[in-house]
């Protein structure tokens, strides 16, 4: 029985790496006595996969984990049951059963929303409202935004202009664009001053990290990019309803993309009675 | 949201920041302001090692059962953070509250191996606590040491206010009550230490005086205040089933060395191997009740979500209900994807049956610890394992499909001859040959044997406490000799030989049987940059050598002498139950190559009977079947 979990990762849990989050969930499922289907062999492991690893230091309100439930026994009351054995800084925010034919969230991931904040006590030209608006306008006016993308294996120059679906300093504008009401982010606005919201291409083919966009803005402003000054917070992850296999949607693509949050993609409609509810923190 | 002691910048610039954030599953949360006693438990090594230690989990759980106590934890910051904390003057903090260790009432440090001694000073230093107990004031915590190295606390006596000698389950609450009483009186630090000294098992080093003979040996060792006893009694938890044991152990976020549920099935050992300190200081063996173990196994697996459980004891095969326990664990949990790990198991039919059920035979290896290569040497050390039994075990395992074997030996044992070392290579080869008696079609590729030797370090409270230790030059010689012998065996290509570092072993040897005069050496080595001595990449032998020279302390005095039979040892003020006369008689039997039967086969009258528990009071006759080896 395929299912998808949406969870947040904040506070001190920002320092827990992706593989450790995986181990954390494996243990949490066992504590909650939620049986997951396992791989075969002498060291069977629970079947689970994440939509997209979150880098160390980043926080999120919308991480997605796909699992395969052994049976329907745990479906009722799934969220409170799992949250009861979790810590305060990784919380399950949603649970949905998927169609058995649905692809993994990793395979369908098309875009992510990010909030960029400046940490308390840090300086950044983005703290200045007219300044950052001007900077964004100038950035988007360019035909191409070339950035050096470093991976473990190589360095290459990529143009990220077409992969910035939206960038603004206004939450209202961003909500109007994405059609999502985000509510309050799990970030203390005293510690972290919001400066920009952005929606970027994500997924296994092309994945644009928000750091690259900040870096481009800094370079354009002739400022040094101090990565420690910023707290980046993931707000949502999307699948593209009209995705074409192997193609990446860009701003100039012929077919517009139709993004839906991963929590709504591939959902088993018989499961509507278990509609996502945001549980109260206990 | 939890407030962390370290900034994002620091946490993002060090390796594995999860070492410093606390907040683990099952961490105890209390209001520090409401706790009458704040106790910080420390393992002076890196987080992944410290978090794997069962003793701290037991004491953490036990102390936190009391509402008036908040027990927290601290580990040695790794070298990267150590540097940052010194540069930026950040005080060492406990993981739970993230508050400075210096503000605590107690700092309890577990002493699991000698090579952690400089890390003790690191923890004190980073906390801002004066390194020497004599320099501490009412603003500082009381620093308590415990664990196996507390059985000879003298080399680190200056750095501790109190040593807790023995098992932590017995008198910690008495000590805490005494502290509360003292706190209300508003008296000075010394008056609390005088109260502590009167609690059985508590050793307050500053209340004792050591005098030396001209040859450097100890002439006298006596208390200087009337509150301190002449002899400190080792603490023994007599009933192992009606006692403290965590139901909800901590679950770290990062992978630690012991990333599993640990079930201590018994404490102590019946075997009486003459090199083994644990086999003497934890006497008598005390098994835990089977039902107690089943209940705890179930609770701990549920509360942690771990996917593995391991049995812990010095010799699991001597737990009488082992078969019942292991088959129960398999029936109960294997279907739920829980792996069962079984270390320290004698290889026999039962062990092979269980292992074939819980492991992938093709990937796992078998471990034998013959400890010595020749039968003569095994008799000297009283290791009741014969070549016949080893070869039979290996053969059965090979028939069962295994092809990897790990062998553990010691070099530099008392009375060791070149033939005894050669016998290590020969035994390794015999095991390899055994493999090729298995029909070819049943073999699983080539046999793979890993032979490891460590250097024997004589320890206090063992029959070999009088024995000289092999020098590092001799150890090197012996290593090359053995390497050469391994290479000349028929199956040389199937045998891989590893050897433990001789310089580290030498220092371990000095500290193991050292005295108070070593405190200055350790302090200087630390001040000149030694920490993490147990980690090869951080071990700086040159600095140690210099520290010995500068303080006029001769390592050979501690290492190379055969100690006189009537010599007073620095640790003789501790009464572990096992009598010095018994140890000496065992030393004599070792020289005569005579073995001594294990506790169940026949009582050798070691002295542990006075604790009136465990094997000493078991029904006689019930254990006769264990007598054969």
Description:
The complex is a heterodimer of chains A (282) and B (629). Chain A has 282 residues and is an alpha+beta fold. Chain A has 2 domains: 2-102 and 266-274, 2-Layer Sandwich (Alpha-Beta Plaits); 109-261, no CATH class. Chain A has 6 helices and 11 strands. In chain A, the strands form 2 sheets. In chain A, strands 1, 2, 3, 4, 5, 8, 9, 10 and 11 form a 9-stranded mixed sheet that branches. Chain A is globular, with a radius of gyration of 19 Å. The two termini of chain A are 28 Å apart. Residues 275-282 of chain A have low confidence and may be disordered. Among the domains of chain B are: 8-233, Rossmann fold, CATH 3.40.50; 361-513, Transcription Regulator spoIIAA, CATH 3.30.750. Chain B is 33% helix and 14% strand. Chain B contains 20 helices and 19 strands. Chain B has helices at 8-13, 47-50, 54-64, 79-88, 117-127, 172-185, 189-197, 278-281, 290-304, 322-333, 349-358, 375-380, 387-399, 418-435, 472-487, 502-512, 519-527, 541-550, 555-559, 580-591, and strands spanning 37-43, 69-75, 106-110, 142-146, 162-164, 202-203, 208-212, 218-223, 232-233, 261-264, 266-267, 286-287, 308-312, 339-341, 366-371, 404-411, 448-455, 495-499, 574-575. Chain B has a 6-stranded mixed sheet. Chain B has a 4-stranded parallel sheet with strand order 15-16-17-18, with helices on one face. Chain B is globular, with a radius of gyration of 25 Å. Chain B starts with 7 loop residues before the first helix and ends in a 38-residue tail after the last helix. Chains A and B meet through helix 1 of A and helix 1 and helix 9 of B.
């Amino acid at each position: 029985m395929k299912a998808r979990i949406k969870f947040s990762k904040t506070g001190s849990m920002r320092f827990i790496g992706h593989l450790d989050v995986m181990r954390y969930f494996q243990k949490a499922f066992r504590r909650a006595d939620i049986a997951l289907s396992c791989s075969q062999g002498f060291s069977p492991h629970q079947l689970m996969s994440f939509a997209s690893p979150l880098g160390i230091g980043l926080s999120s309100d919308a991480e997605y984990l796909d699992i395969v439930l052994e049976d329907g026994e745990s479906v009722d009351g799934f969220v409170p049951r799992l949250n009861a054995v979790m810590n305060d800084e990784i919380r399950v925010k949603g649970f949905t059963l998927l169609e058995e034919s649905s692809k993994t969230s990793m395979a369908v991931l098309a875009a992510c929303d990010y909030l960029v904040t400046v940490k308390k006590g840090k300086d950044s030209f983005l703290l200045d409202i007219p300044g950052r608006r001007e900077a964004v306008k100038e950035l988007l006016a360019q035909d191409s935004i070339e950035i050096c993308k470093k991976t473990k294996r190589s360095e290459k120059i990529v143009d990220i202009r077409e992969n910035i679906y939206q960038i603004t300093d206004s939450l209202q504008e961003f909500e109007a664009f994405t059609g999502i009401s985000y509510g309050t982010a799990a970030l203390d606005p005293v510690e972290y001053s919001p400066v920009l919201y952005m929606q970027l291409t994500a997924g296994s083919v092309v994945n644009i990290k928000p750091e690259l966009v900040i870096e481009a803005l800094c370079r354009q402003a002739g400022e040094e990019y101090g990565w420690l000054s910023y707290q980046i917070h993931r707000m949502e992850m999307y699948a593209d309803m009209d995705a074409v296999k192997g193609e990446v949607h860009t701003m100039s693509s012929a077919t517009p993309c139709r993004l839906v949050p991963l929590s709504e993609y591939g959902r088993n409609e018989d499961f509507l009675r278990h509609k996502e509810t945001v549980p109260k923190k206990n | 949201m939890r407030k962390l002691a370290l900034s994002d910048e620091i946490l993002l610039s060090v390796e594995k920041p999860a070492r410093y954030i606390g907040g683990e599953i099952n961490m105890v949360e209390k209001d520090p302001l409401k706790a009458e006693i704040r106790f910080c438990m420390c393992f002076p090594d890196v987080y992944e090692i410290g978090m794997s230690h069962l003793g701290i989990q037991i004491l953490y759980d036990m102390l936190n059962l009391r509402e008036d106590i908040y027990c927290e934890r601290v580990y040695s910051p790794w070298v990267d953070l150590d540097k940052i904390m010194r540069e930026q003057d950040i005080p060492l903090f406990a993981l739970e509250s993230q508050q400075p260790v210096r503000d605590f009432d107690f700092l309890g440090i577990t002493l699991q191996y000698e090579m952690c001694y400089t890390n003790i000073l690191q923890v004190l230093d980073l906390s801002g606590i004066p390194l020497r107990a004599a320099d501490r004031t009412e603003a500082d915590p009381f620093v308590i040491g415990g664990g196996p190295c507390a059985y000879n606390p003298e080399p680190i006596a200056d750095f501790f206010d109190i040593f807790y000698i023995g098992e932590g389950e017995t008198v910690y609450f008495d000590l805490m009550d005494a502290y509360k009483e003292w706190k209300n009186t508003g008296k000075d630090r010394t008056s609390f230490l005088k109260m502590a000294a009167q609690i059985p098992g508590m050793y307050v080093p500053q209340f004792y005086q050591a005098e030396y003979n001209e040859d450097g040996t100890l002439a006298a060792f006596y208390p200087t205040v009337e509150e301190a006893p002449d002899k400190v009694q080792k603490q023994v938890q007599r009933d192992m089933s009606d006692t403290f044991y965590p139901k909800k152990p901590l679950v770290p976020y990062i992978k630690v060395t012991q990333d599993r549920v640990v079930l201590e099935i018994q404490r102590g050992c019946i075997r009486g191997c003459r090199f083994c300190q644990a086999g003497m200081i934890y006497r008598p063996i005390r098994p835990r009740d089977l039902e107690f173990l089943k209940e705890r196994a179930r609770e701990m697996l549920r509360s942690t979500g771990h996917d593995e459980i391991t049995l812990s004891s010095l010799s699991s095969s001597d737990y009488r209900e082992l078969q019942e326990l292991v088959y129960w664990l398999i029936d109960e949990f294997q279907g739920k994807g829980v792996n069962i790990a079984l270390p320290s198991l004698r290889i026999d039919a039962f062990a092979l049956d269980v292992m074939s059920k819980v492991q992938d035979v093709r990937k796992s290896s078998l471990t034998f610890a013959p400890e010595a290569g020749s039968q003569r040497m095994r008799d000297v050390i009283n290791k009741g394992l014969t070549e016949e039994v080893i070869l039979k075990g290996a053969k059965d395992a090979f028939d069962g499909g295994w092809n990897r074997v790990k062998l553990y030996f010691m070099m530099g044992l008392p009375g060791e001859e070149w033939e005894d070392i050669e016998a290590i290579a020969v035994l390794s080869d015999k095991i390899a040959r055994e493999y090729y008696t298995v029909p070819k079609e049943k073999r699983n590729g080539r046999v793979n044997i890993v032979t490891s030797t460590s250097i024997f370090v004589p320890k206090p409270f063992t029959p070999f406490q009088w024995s000289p230790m092999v020098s590092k030059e001799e150890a090197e010689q012996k290593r090359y000799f053995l390497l050469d012998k391994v290479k000349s065996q028929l199956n040389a290509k199937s045998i891989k030989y590893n050897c433990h570092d001789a310089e580290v072993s030498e220092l371990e040897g000095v500290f193991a049987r050292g005295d108070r005069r070593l405190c200055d050496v350790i302090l200087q080595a630390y001040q000149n940059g030694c920490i993490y001595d147990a980690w090869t990449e951080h071990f700086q032998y040159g600095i140690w050598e210099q520290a010995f020279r500068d303080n006029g302390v001769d390592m050979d005095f501690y290492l190379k002498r055969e100690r006189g039979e009537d010599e007073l040892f620095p640790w003789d003020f501790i009464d572990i139950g096992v009598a010095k006369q018994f140890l000496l008689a065992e030393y004599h039997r070792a020289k005569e190559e005579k073995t001594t039967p294990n506790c169940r086969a026949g009582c050798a009258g070691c002295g542990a009977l006075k604790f009136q528990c465990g094997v000493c009071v078991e029904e006689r006759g019930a254990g006769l079947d264990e007598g054969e080896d």
